[in-house]
Amino acid sequence: MSKTISVESSDRLKEFTQSFRLFLVIFYSEQDAASKAITNFPEQLSTTTSIPDSMKFAKVDVAVRQEIADEYQITTIPSFVYFKNGKVVDKVQGVNAAQLTNLMRKIKTDAEGAKSNDASSSSGGGSSSANWRGAELPRGYGDITSQIELQRCELLNVDSEGGSVRVLFDSSKPSTLSGGKATAKDWVESDTDEQLMLFMPFQSVLKLHTLQITSLPPQDDDDDEAPMRPRTIKLFSNKPHNLGFDEAEDMASTQTIELSEKDWSAEGTASIPLRYVKFQNVTSLVMFVVNGDGDSEKVRLDRLRLIGEAGEKREMGKLEKIGDGSE
C-alpha cells in the first residue's frame, strides 16, 4: 500500500477521489498533537486492506489548506471523509471510537468487495453492470484497464459538453445499453472535427494483447450531425507524453487499425487484436482516432478496455508527486 498522499489543492483532491474507487481523507493539524497522532490510522488500516490501485489515503493540514477544510465543512480536527466512486459516503468528525470503528469496518468491507470484483473481472467472470464488458476476454488474458494512470491521461479535441476521459474506463455498463436515462453523458465525443487523441500512461509495464472499444452513437440515419464510430485508429507505444495531431499524422504508428461494420458486436464493441510482438513492454499508449465511419464531424467513444498481462510496477516515485510532470 502506498504512503498517505499529501494534498496540495482542492483540485488535486478532486482528481484523486475520481481516480480511485475508495479514498479516505484525514483532516488534521500539525499544531495539535492528538490530531497529528491519529493520522497514523490510515497507515495501520492499510496493512489489513491491501487493494492495489483501488484504495488510497490522503491527509490535509487544515492550518495550511483551510480552503479545503471549508469546502468539506470540517469544524473539528481530526476529521475523516470517506469517498466511494468519487462521492462522499461517510464523515467522522472528532475522535469518536465507535464511529471510527464503524468507518474502519465499512472501508474494509468495501475494499474486500473491490478486491473480489477485480478478481472476477480479471477472470472474465460475472455479467453485472458494475463489471460490464462489451466483448469476451481472449483465452489466457485478463482485463488490465486498471493499470492506466487515470490522473495523467490526456484526451485532446474532446467536446466539453460530453463526459471526461475517465468515463472511458468506467467499469459500469454504458447508459445507452442499460435502458435508463443518464444524469450526465457517460461517453466522450470529438469537438471541432472527427479526430481524437488519447494519451494513456501505465502503472506497470504491460503486455497488450487486445484493445476493446465500445462506441454507441444514436441510430438516426436522418441526423447528419450524429456522432460516428471510429474507422481508422493509429496506436503509438511508449511515448512520454501526448502527441500533436499533425505530428501523429506524419509519424509511423506501432499499429494502424481499420474498422468496418462487421467488427462491431451487438453491444457496440470492437475487439481488436494487437500485433502482440510489438506490444510486449509497453509503458504508455497513444490512441489517435484519425476518422469516423461516415460523413459527420464527430466521433463517439463510450468505453475502452485493455486486455493483456501486467508486469512489474514502474518506478514513479512517491504518489505525493503525481501530476508534477515527472515520472
UniProtKB/TrEMBL annotation:
Gene Ontology terms, cellular component aspect? cytoplasm
Family matches, as PANTHER family: THIOREDOXIN-LIKE PROTEIN 1
Region Disordered: what ranges?
A: 111-134
Q: Which domain of life is it from?
A: Eukaryota
- Domain PITH as annotated: residue spans: 136-322
InterPro entries referenced in this protein's UniProt entry, alphabetically: Galactose-bd-like_sf (IPR008979), PITH_dom (IPR010400), PITH_dom_sf (IPR037047), Thioredoxin-like_sf (IPR036249), Thioredoxin_domain (IPR013766)
Task: Give the record's family classification.
Answer: Belongs to the thioredoxin family.
Q: Does the keyword Disulfide bond apply?
A: yes
Indicate what this protein is called per its UniProt record. PITH domain-containing protein
Source organism per entry reads Cercophora newfieldiana
Give the matching CDD domains.
TRX_family (cd02947)
Thioredoxin domain residues: 17-105
Instruction: Enumerate the UniProt keywords alphabetically.
Output: Disulfide bond
